[in-house]
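Q: Could you fold this chain for me?
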Amino acid sequence: MCAAPRGTASWVDAPGDCPRCSPVADVSPPTQYAASWGIDGNAGNVWDADNGRYIPHMPAAAKRAPGPAGKPGTPNPVYLLHGDNEFLKDEKVRALIDQLADPATRDFNLDMLRGGDADAGRVANALDALPVMAERRVVVIRDFSSLKKDAMGILTKYLDRPASDTVVVLVAPGGWKGDAAIAGRCKSIPCETPSDDEAQAWAIDRAGTLGVTIDGAAARAIVQATGTDLGLIDGELRKLRDFTAGGPVDAAAIAAVVGVVVGATSDELMDLACARDAAGAASLVPIVLTQPKASGVGLLLALSSHLLLIGHVVAMREAGTGPRQSAGDLWAMMKEMPGSVVGRPWGEAVSCVTKHADKWDRRSVDRALASLAAADQSLKESSYSGEDQIIATCLLGFGASPRGKNRVA
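A: Sure. Below is the predicted structure, expressed as structure tokens.
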């Protein structure tokens, strides 16, 4: 029976359950992460009235039972992070460590290994070790596919009966082709390079985490400057937070920090070009080309992609296809050609093309594409830095005929 006085907050019924009477203890998850797993962080723990805190129980037996993956209320015993987005992998690893490894005992219960450097003995020791004053251990093995044969054999055998008091996080290198012997026994967490739309949504979410308020236009401008590199987006958001002192991010802040003028981006230029507002599109060229990662060749590629999509809609319209089916076909085309360059989120490109396709016919599309091809050739052959003039002149040929729609002057 527990030595604590009966009826006090520290008293427990079962002998060996009180940390004052038992040499070992078992933990429930710390409250700071328990809620995210749907676990009562203090369930089964003992309240220490003298120190105002919960003290974890410990099991009487040292033998570890295997933990079934996906058991309600508990984390999975093995996670597999895979994909080409290294920044996202690092984020997921940090999140899992924060959720599963109690900071108070983390030095004793966290092992960080790298496949190429970890021999069989080190892998075995990490997987077989018992938690120290905590409910579970966390073992992270980065680049696990580089483990030598004997070390990989130990890992594979462990996955047959993973321990309930250890969470293993396997991090695959970019380009990993997959291994059924591994992937089939892990909780898979894909970390792929996001699309433009996903990167914008991520930027808005991360801005909120950093205490920065941005809208969709600001997020779009940041992604246009950085691409879908989440690490670069995070860096720009941190700079914007410091620049605005935590206040809302406006167009002036974006221009000063990121170097992008909101309302004068490649998206707006392509919208105007597809709408056959030649003068408006041409006026944006010098501004767009001064923005980060902008280039004349890239801009011409994006414009050409938009015109090819418009040409497809025009052909479908002539065949009697309705706008809704045309939009569906455009999505299918872009999915079949992932290398196509539209320079913006696919949804925005489809919306722009279907909105303005009725301003074009076959002849005007053919002439615009020929003009873009000639401009591309001029950029490659030109020995002077006048790409803005070449592209602006090309765009001026997009204008609608003064006699009516669907004719190029």
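A (continued): The chain has a mean pLDDT of 76.
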